[in-house]
Amino acid sequence: MTAAPAFEDIRVEACTCPGCRLRNVPDAACRAAHGRRIAAVATLTGATLLGGAGASFAASSATALAPSASSASAAGLKASATAASGNENPQGQPGPLGGRPSLSRMATHDMSLTRQQILARAQTWVDARVPYVWNGYWSDGYRQDCSGFISMAWGLSANHWTGDIHNWGVRISKDALQPGDMLLYHNPANPQKGSHVVLFAGWTDSSHTRYVVMESAGGMGAVKRTIPYAYTSNSAKYVPYRYKNVTTSGGESGNGGQPGGGGSSSTAFPGASAFGPGANNAHVTKLGQMLVKRGGGSFYSQGPGPKWSESDRKATQAFQKAQGWSGADADGIPGKATWSYLVEGKGKSIGGATGGGGGATGGSGGSASAFPGTKYFRPGVNNDYVTQLGKQLVKKGFGKHYSQGPGPKWSESDRRNVEAFQRAQGWSGADADGYPGPETWKRLFR
Question: What is the pLDDT of residue 435?
Fold first, then answer.
């Protein structure tokens, strides 16, 4: 009969236990944990099986193992301490996408992206609060460190680091910086001492002394914040770069990531650069107004305006999803296809209705008779016009104040929904009192 081994050797070079994988514990920490376990097993086994002599052997074995475990533990602690430092951002080496990325999210080649798409990709990590783990990988396959963050935002097909990521960019001046560009500092003498790379998301002042940064940093993870130019440390050593594959019209097909995108339009698509964080122009107002007409009014707490907001992104995304688009095709940033559908009244409105008023030229949309008069919309009235009004409000996306379906009896829910619609037109005061007049009626049913 073969005797069972007193203890079993454990390969500590590449721990694959579920706990370590889930916690993304550095290899050094794994070796420390298993090193201590081997030492303990040796001590207990020797003491039990060999008596006094065995105890002496076990003690010497444990002593021999202890330095390795101790140094591994120190290395793991050093890595953790380094990751928590604002000035030291340990990073992995360049390599393929890691972990187990979703096939639908993997980049199979370096993407061509608009600035807004770059920022939208970066925002996904900020929203998910992706932690900083220099040797860990997020669900999209990108390494969870500063250079992995930029590799992800730029849609690169592999993970890069501060020592080579400049090869995917073109060096520019500070004055040329635009949202989606990167600021890079690489210290070749000691890459973990200060080396860092961040995404530029727009100036916050006309003097260009402060800006919005999106980054993955030790001790913070993926964040979006305002800081002095160029960074909080080693500021003079940061160099601006622009992604080589950045586009002005969106996607490799020039459609802003959406299918189609052709066709005639009474209002030409101004370009994806007109939209997204930091945008402030008349095109944003126009977009919001068209979205309101297609059922997106509930996303706005006040009327659409020229400054891009999260309300614009959510309303755009809802419209894109109403067309059956998903992923990058429904990222909340309008491309040619989105603009064309809105301008020409094509596709489905938010909430499932088909078609709608053209954003620039009117269009058919809902039909109704001429405005019946204000007397039909007051407390205590009960008529079919109130029902007709309520149904159209719901169709346009302004039905959130109804606890039950619209009916013929005028209620406070009707008034609040009408007010929300009026404010979405940019009206205020007496023009947004919640009681429909001829212009409210006209805009609701056109």
Answer: 93
